[in-house]
Amino acid sequence: MDNELKHAILCVDDEKQILSALKRLLRRERFDLFTATSGEEGLEIMASQNIHLVISDHRMPEMSGISFLAKVREAFPDAIRILLTGYTEIDSIKASINEGHVYKFLLKPWNDDNLKQEIRKALERYDLIQANRALHLMVAQKNEELEQINKDLETIIKQRTRELELQNQALELTRVLFRGLPVAAVGVSYDQTIILINRQAERLKINGRTLMVGNFLADYFSKNEMNKLLPVFESKVNQVTFSITAENLPYSVSLSALTGRFSGKGFILCFQEQAG
User: Fold this and answer.
1) 118-164 pLDDT tens trace
2) Torsion of CA 230, 234, 237, 239, to 10 degrees
3) Other CB atoms within 10 Å distance of the CB of residue 143
4) 10-residue mean pLDDT series, the chain (276 residues)
5) How far is CA 238 from each of CA 58, 191, 270, rounded to the nearest angstrom?
6) C-alpha to C-alpha distance for 257 and 265, rounded to whole angstroms
7) Which strands make up the sheet holding 249-257, listed edge to edge?
8) Which residues pair with 186 in a beta bridge?
9) What domains, with CATH codes, occur in the chain?
10) Separation between Cα atoms, residue 44 and residue 53, nearest integer Å
11) Contact 72, 24 (CB under 8 A)
12) CB–CB of 46/79 below 8 Å?
């Protein structure tokens, strides 16, 4: 199916033989052709039809071709306007061209091939103007969409920045609380590495060694004690508790798995001195 735009042309002339000649000339072209014998009739047709090109005679009674095309320009600015004239009033016609009322003027009698060529050029101009307009509208729409995306992104960034600030504050508060716990507490990673130590734990020595970030639990606990901790690391249980002696004092040792988004990634090891 051919979806190519079929152009509509309006020919206006008070001489019916001129209109007949134009009909014969253009009958085999792919145009919808409309005719009118006066400017008023032409404007009525323009109001009811989507006309792409207007060809008007210059000398017509009541309303001249220049006056008619000026009204067309005002009411239907997209239509291309061509003036046919058999007179040599070049100055007034040039003035009309300069004012934008007329795209081009052609002298009568015309050459058929030249006239058809000028009509094709005029319609190509019409299509180009429409394509440029559509492109500008598309670019403007894309710019608006991009502007909205940038605004949304800015909002998301501000929101995310605020969330990170709150998370940092919460993390700092957690560190402070962790450091100030009344029991010795140690943060342990999934590979059994010490990653965090509070104040109470810094004072504690296990098997004669001070707890230090970066060391492994196996550096402090015996193989038997490590086997007791293993079920928590293997996610078989959430917590284990057993007793040890540190610096000749009895301690209860408990290893607990973190939950939520830290599940399987972090553990807390606590040392609680037992009453003698």
Assistant:
1) 999 999 999 999 999 999 999 999 999 999 999 999 999 999 998 88
2) 50
3) 10
4) 73 94 88 94 96 93 90 94 79 68 84 92 93 92 92 91 85 79 90 92 90 94 94 92 90 89 81 82
5) 98, 16, 14
6) 8
7) 194-197, 184-189, 266-273, 249-257, 239-246
8) 197, 269
9) 7-136 (3.40.50.2300), 175-273 (3.30.450.20)
10) 15
11) no
12) yes
Of 184, 195, 250, 246, residue with least CA distance to 221: 246
Q: What pTM value is reported for the model?
A: 0.56
Asked if 76 and 105 count as a contact pair (C-beta separation under 8 A), the reply is no
- Among candidate residues 110, 144, 137, 128, the one with its CA nearest the CA of residue 13: 110
Amino acid at 135: L
Which has the closest alpha carbon to 269: 175, 167, 194, 182? 194
CA distances from 148 to 54, 151, 159 (A): 42, 5, 16
Query: Which amino acid would we find at residue 82?
Result: I
Angstrom distance (rounded) from CA 122 to CA 173: 75
Radius of gyration of the chain, Cα coordinates, nearest whole angstrom: 45
Residue 88 CA, chain-centre distance (Å), reads 57
